[in-house]
Amino acid sequence: MMRHASPQGRGMNELIDKIFARGVTIVAFVIGSFHLLNVSGLVVLSTRDIRIFHLMMMLVLLFMTRATLKRLEASAADKLLRVALIGISVASCVYLMTRWKDIAFSGGATVPMDAWVGIVVLFLVLEAARRGVGLVLAIICLIFFTYPFYSQYLPGVLYGRGYSVTRMSEFLTTTSQGVFGIPLGVSATYIILFSIYGAFLSAFGAGDFFFKLASRVTQGMRAAGAKTAVIFSTLLGMISGSAAGNVAVTGTLTIPMMKKEGYQPHQAGAIEAVVSTGGQIMPPVMGAAAFIMAEVVGTPYSNVMKVALVPALLFFASLFFVVHLQAAKSGLEPSRAPVDEDETTLMILLKGGQYIIPFATLIAMMLNGFSPFKASFYSILVLLGCHIIWTRRIGLDLFVKSATAITEGAKAVIPIAVACAAAGIIAGTLGITGLGSKISGLIVSASGGYIFVALLLTMLTAIILGMGLPTTAAYLVLATVVAPALAKMGLPLLTAHLFVFFYGCVSTITPPVALASYVAAGIAKADINKVGWTAFAYGITCYILPFMFVFGPGLMLEGPVLQIALAIVSAAIGVFGIASAVIGYATGPLPTVMRIVAAAAGLALLHQGWMTDIAGLAGLALVLARRQAALQNT
Question: Is the pTM of this model over 0.85?
Fold first, then answer.
């Protein structure tokens, strides 16, 4: 017999729901405002205090918004458990804030209570990772955390002397090499500020401007809707830095537009999934993982932008070729994107000046040596100033939009902050046990010392790990486990990290677990597997590019100017060859043999070197010549 909740129980449920709903808004606004005040210099705290406070608030927000299990979401017991977890999170983090200075000034001396509180914090982080990111990350972190407890029983290179639970908990929570290490520090500085910045742009209408601009640029082209999607999702993806989130925001506009244009549902979903994934690698505002990369590698963020620029542009060029060739193969006629005929391009740009100026300010400040979080803060101020100038009014609406942006920006960081804290467990364990160097040694040994084999093993590892994780979490795991092996083999550290970063990104469109493709399939009302495999094919260039920029530094803007120019031009032609092979169409349908030749030619052109360029051009010329001959025969 089904038991119904008593009136008292229902009343308690409703009360807790109201408290959570109001509490999420308040806490998110508080933490967002705190970080804005901190970067402005009005609130000054130590680095450790900021990181502990950041984690505390993010844990509170996560436990308010995520149930223990989906099926228990409406139960009073689960709500009471979440209240208890919130209380424990606050109490344990406050304790750490009161203790860390004593521990630091005493040279690391701790008391038994520090270890017990550390165990509680580790449990909270793992549980938050399970709820907010997924079971996969929680399991990976748990495996690494427990390694010291059984390492003395393992054979070969995996053998370790072992550590106690109390020693591990103290190390991971009272030092700057564990939970409160670099990843969480990046979340508490770069990521939350850029998330709030993106929320400000969204709240003040930048999305509408980007869509109008993209539609105007592609007006009258074949596959105008798909090309609008490419440009629009690129512009928005630079701000959001989340593949699945970008699909959810832009896909509701672009996917129906592509379907109306004549694309099959699975094709429209695949195009949106791929381009939204690419938004994470497009400077100037790449995904959250790019900021972590800059900190881990120890290089200015402007250097990360520089080396990623050409690969990102080549990736989006390949998408333009893909959507154009697919449209031509499907017989889609040139169409007009949905634009206001009375609004000229100049008018759109003038109205959008309130978004262009802040964006230009952001780029200029970062290129001139300002830290990314300082640049984003001042860009927000410029955005508010431009909005006042353009609208010529200061009213309640301005403050409401600002408060909403701060709140939504902070809420968007919840899973990222949790992933960063969880990754600190992995990084800390690798550091204290020496497991990191052992894993690097295993990869080097398995590759036989051949860098190409090591890259191939790294790619497979990155894609497999990334399938069940968001990009930021995937990169954090890869950066601590895999990237050091490539650096050990002589690869420049930044190149090694960019290599694994790319595969962390494309894991969101790699079957069988492709998060961005799943979201796109839902919007397109298409089969998720069909969307996933189509997205994989459309985005194949992004799987190839990392190998090419490792062996061709010209694609990372390194080397003589002439070599860089030749590398970029030949690579641009090369991605056309690969797109032709994927779609099976150039100036007309291509038979299987010519598709293989086009793919080989594209690979040769992508590889830096005049001999491979000549071979690639010859192969592509053969494909076009055979196609022309076939047209004449018909």
Answer: no
